[in-house]
Amino acid sequence: MKYELQPALPPPSSMIGVVGWLRKHLFNGPINSIATIVVGYFLISLLVPTVQWIFIDSDWVGDSRDACTSGGACWVFIANRLDQFLYGFYPEAEHWRVQLAFIILIGSIIWLVLPQTPKKGLVAALLLVVYPIIAFFLLYGNAFGLVQVETHLWGGLSLTLVLAVVGIVASLPLGIVLALGRQSEMPIVRSVCVTFIEIWRGVPLITVLFMASVMLPLFFPEGMSFDKLLRALIGITLFQSAYMAEVIRGGLQAIPRGQYEAADALGLGYWQKMILIIMPQALKLMIPGIVNTFIALFKDTSLVLIIGLFDVLAIGQAANQDPKWIGYSTESYLFVALLFWVFCFSMSRYSQHLEKKLHTGHGNRA
Amino acid sequence: MKKTLTSAAVLMVAMTGTAMAGTLETVKERGAVQCGVTSGVPGFSVPDDKGNWKGLDVDMCRAVAAAVLGDATKVKFIPLNAKERFTALVSGEIDLLSRVTTWTQTRDTQLGINFAGVNYYDGQGFLVKKELGLKSVKELDGATVCVQSGTTTELNMADYFRTHSISYTPVVFDTNDQAAQAFDSGRCDSFTTDLSQAAGLRTRMQDPSSVGALPEVISKEPLGPVVRQGDDTWFNIVKWSHNAMLNAEELRLTSANVDKMKAESTDPNVKRLLGLDGPKGQGLDLADDWAYQIVKQVGNYGEAYERNVGKDSPLGLDRGLNALWNQGGLQYAPPMR
Asked: Which of A124-133, B106-115, B166-175 has the highest mean pLDDT?
């Protein structure tokens, strides 16, 4: 007698498809079912009016508050002030300079980020050395036939980006130097670095900014005034470099001692050892920490509003005070939050991508 | 404590530096007046959607620029917060502070600064829902009052209610916005703040017409332009720029009719104000037509008032205390002769 296996029956319809997924993940027991229903109820009762307010009932076109009649969000307010949100009080005829400066920046960053493009080293060098000079003259002017645009006119998203980019670019190398100094065996270098780091890390950024804007001018000789934006930039950079130094020191300590000794055994000098052996490995480990610091810095730039610089948040708050548009502060805060989120989220995604790309063995994730 | 420290620091500089002489020369050389303003108070200084600064305090800056440089647009607006405003002035970062600053004894005598006049008489008042039918603050016995925490507003209210033995429950909020919204949603019976700000906050309530102010004003808040101590030329210029705007209103000179009046008027007061006669610009080291430039480019005080906070603005404030002295208000300027 021949035995034949019956073909396997399909799983019961309640275990597969949408129903199956729902049963498995949302309703697999009385407590979970109740939780699902309660949470779902709150989600829906929150989301529906929000979406309705933001998209369905909202007004998008017009040029005064009379256009906002439907009871939802009044995006007309944002649209009318979009230029100010992006450029602050930068003269309208000169907006192209800001645009050009950021197009070059974004272009070179894309060049560096895309895997296929050639000559990355050259582009990176140009970006770090030549670009700051170009950007300075583009934004500030007063040379090459460009009109001078003083920094008290800078504002909005472009000011936020200037603060963040300068802070990020300047604090990383400074942080590396400080971290190496802190680990140095030379007592003077070490104590200077430790003191610097601990002092700057021990004070809140608000204090640093207040010092820069309120106290510092008192110590200058009469009649000498130092640009407020520059003061804030220096404050932010020094503050962030102290944080950066500690992140980098963490990375340096994670490198096994054998690597240092191997480099010494090969007869490499201090700088060769650091640049060729230690840093490439350490920096890779530090990516999450570094990007974390960058994101924190990006958001911290909004603190400059307390010293009267109009970053994107301050522009939003000033807009809220316009008597013609009083009562639309929710819209402007939402818009500013969206801008911040877009930038921070992209930084975080890029760092994850970088981590995956550079993952060559260390760490415990396969 | 913090306040003491700031004051001490400001004072230190005020004493050692004895302020810079020659603000007028600096301004002329620079070609612009650097004016400290708020980063946004409706009606007083706020950037509009084109990025132009508007407001009563802003017009004060423009008037000084018109008088000194002959061009009201030559002003650099430096937004300052409440804490850094006096340092910025004393350290020379700005030439003139026009930032809803209340004139008090401490500030005038201990910070190395001078108040050059009062361009807005403000005071603290109470908003209530009209449906309650209240006629006076004295009827607020047992009421809940929304107020911003940590302000003189809160202290003034406590003082006033204690001296009049009225019981009340304060409901405090971090910002004036929140306090106003809480009042609007019925959390409190009344809401107290400076009247100039109450007007702005009232316009954004659900039904502004159902909200009214009680007649009592319980505090004095004279707001005015401030200059460094020790530079009397500049102090005089700011003081007389304000006086010129008041005198122009009194003489019914407006930006619209000033050219005609300059050509035709035979009134000696008008001729003196417009620099055709009298002291002209001598004592101030200014051009003879300095006051004409102010009236022509900025307008008289009444024009500035109505345009920024008065009936031509969304705030819609009455002139009240800020009417001219001969119309029942307090704005009074010494004669120009």
From this structure: B106-115
For residue A124, the SS3 value is helix
pLDDT digits (tens, 9 = 90+) for A113-128: 887 878 888 888 888 8
Amino acid at B78: I
Q: CA-to-CA distance for B195 and B216, rounded, in angstroms?
A: 11
Say whether B91 and A84 touch across the interface (CB within 8 A).
no
Q: Residues with Cβ < 8 Å from B86, sequence gap 6 or more?
A: B6, B10, B97, B107, B111, B113, B226
Is the ipTM reported for this complex over the cut 0.95?
no
The pTM assigned to this predicted structure is 0.82
Amino acid present at B276:
L
Q: What are phi and psi of B225, to 5 degrees?
A: -75, 145
Pick the CATH number of B2-121+222-327 from 3.40.190.10, 3.60.15.10, 3.40.50.300, 3.40.190.170: 3.40.190.10
- Res A111 pLDDT > 90: no
Residue to test with chain B: of A92, A214, A230, most B Cβ within 10 A: A214
Query: Of B198, B216, B240, B244, which Cα lies nearest the Cα of B43?
Result: B198
DSSP state of A67: G
- Which residue of A lies nearest to B95 if distances are taken between CA atoms? A223
Is residue A310 exposed (0-12), middle (13-18) or buried (19+ Cβ within 10 Å)? buried
Give the residue-averaged pLDDT of A170-185. Answer: 91
Q: From A67, A328, A335, A315, select the one nearest B49 (Cα to Cα).
A: A315
Q: Cα(A325)–Cα(A311) distance, rounded to whole angstroms?
A: 20
